[in-house]
Amino acid sequence: MEVQQRNMKFTTSMIFPPIFLGLIMIATWISLLYIAADSKQNIHKSLDTVLHITEEALQLWLDARLKDLDFVVNDPAVLKLSKTLLVKQDDLALSQLRALMSNQLSKNADQGFFVIAPNRVSVASMRDSNIGTENLINQQRKNYLDRVFEGETLFIPSVSSDVPLMTKSGELRHKQPTIFVAAPIKDERNTIIGALTLRLNPTANFSRITQLGQIGQSGESYAFDKRGVLLTQSRFTEHLRTAGHIGQDEVSTLSIRVSDPGGNILTGFKPKQVMQDRPLTLMAKRAIAGNTAAYFESYRDYRGAPVFGAWTWNEHLGIGLATEIDAQEALQPYRLTRVVILAVLALVIILMIGLVFIPLWFQEREKKALKQHRDALEQTVRERTQELEAANNALKTLSEVDTLTQIANRRLYEQTLSNAIAASKRASQAMSLMIIDIDFFKPFNDNYGHDKGDITLKKVAQIIANSLTRTTDFAARYGGEEFVVLMPSTDIKGAQHFAKSIKDNIEHSAIEHQFSSVANFVTASIGVSSLAGEALNDIDLFKQADNALYQAKKKGRNQVVAFDDE
To answer: Is the Cβ–Cβ distance between 251 and 233 less than 8 Å?
Structure first.
């Protein structure tokens, strides 16, 4: 009886550890599955956040550039010269258009422009070699140019340049990537007679914005087209060159197709197919097909490296956007946690004791490690968000502030004018406008130099800005040596008095000008107009002030003339 009891206790003691161990192993396996799934969901959430922040930044930048282009294509001088060149080749008109466009291009460090006829031949450009030839946009992205001639103002993704462009290192290289914004040119009957494009610098904003969407050591954000061709600079350009995937003189933009090589080419894998014959990566296939559903597993990117990613297809931009990070880096916290758990399990097996709470303790550690990793990813996202917001604010400032004088530019003036006129009509108050023109500024530039001329423009702009005594008054640089001041709730007498004050302040600054026919210092002529009620509109208000300015110049300059209907 005693032996039987001893055998029963022995049997119980032998059965209990395996059962306990089995329960521990099942619990560990379930925990690892849960942690892996939770880690992948958090990785995707972080990537998706960065992706949409990058997309929003690109959209804001593009909206600003398209508004700039609309302003340029509707500029009367640009429109007149473009119409002339679309009818016949005119060297004088081409020279004048180049001068106008040169000022516009310098504002945003743009690289050139095209005026394109309906037959897709370039009739104007900064380079003579482009004129009379089929436009490169029509050669490489004809469908986009077709949309422009159908009336759209749009962004044209990267194409290979037809002329050598300057690289970051200062070298001139052929077939460099370039991007455009394009708008239709319309005549008085609103008929499309041509197209105007601006050649943007792809590294200045387009690639730079996507480069801000980089997480960790291996994360990157990039853009691609319907064919899967990479439109922005790869973070791994040097690695791709070293691996022989692209030539030593090639850039990754337009040279890489987002296709699956079948293995990691950076670790020595040799693809059996050339790049153009390989299938697109899982990400590219889904994005181009419009499938943006969350995908929590890893896949191979264009290097063949396993990555996690989030993607979208932006119909407005006509491009796909992806944010990816190497699976090895993304899963590092999870793998560390898994090693810890398996080590605990091994210890349990060795000791064969019922330390039930040890796995729970380690699970708490792994949750803490995952939380820290999640916090680190969220911190990275916040930092990238701040950087992108700063970039967006900088872009907004560039679009509204004159880069030379640091006061409002013509674009902001026109927006403010519309709002001010509407407010004046609602309040049944007069609205006044003055146009200020620096006297004999061309002789000043010719004799003192453009650098001194720029300094003088800055000083005059500051004098005008400092002369404003009301928060409702608004000053802007209209163009060249002309400035405008909006004066809500001000009649013609008040505006004329204010204009004389500004004229006197410019005189009192005593800026030397020995080549003026008026005085030996810088002076200004000012035209003033005022309208109220139903007669108030932006065209007549400006036209009257401009006529008054003309009279001020005609009467000998350095004076204020108010518009008189008679």
So the answer is: yes
Catalytic-residue membership of 481:
yes
- How does pLDDT run across 202-229, given as a tens digit for each residue? 766 777 888 877 788 889 999 888 888 8
State how far the Cα of 562 lies from the Cα of 552, in Å rounded to an integer: 9
User: Strands, DSSP E only, in 239-357?
Assistant: 299-300, 306-314, 319-326
The pTM score is: 0.53
Predicted confidence band at 170 (pLDDT cuts at 50, 70, 90)?
A: very low
Same domain, 490 and 393: no
For 176, the 3-state DSSP assignment is: coil
| 551 and 472 housed in the same domain | yes
Q: Which of 481, 482, 507, 512 is flagged as catalytic?
A: 481
The count of C-alpha atoms lying within 13 angstroms of the C-alpha of 486, restricted to the half-sphere facing its C-beta, is 24
Helix or strand (DSSP H, E) at 166: strand 165-166
Domain boundary among 307, 330, 353: 330
The Cα–Cα gap between 405 and 473 comes to 18
433 within 8 A of 486, measured Cβ to Cβ: yes
| pLDDT class of 239 with cuts at 50, 70, 90 | confident
Residue 58 lies in a domain: no
Residue type at position 345: L
Counting Cβ atoms within 10 Å, is residue 83 exposed (0-12), middle (13-18) or buried (19+)?
middle
- Structural domain span for residue 558: 410-562
Beta-bridge mates of residue 436: 483, 526
Closest CA to 563 of 553, 554, 550, 555: 550
Q: Are residues 189 and 233 in the same domain?
A: no
Which helix (H) or strand (E) segment holds residue 528: the answer is strand 524-531
The two beta strands, 482-488 and 319-326, are: unpaired
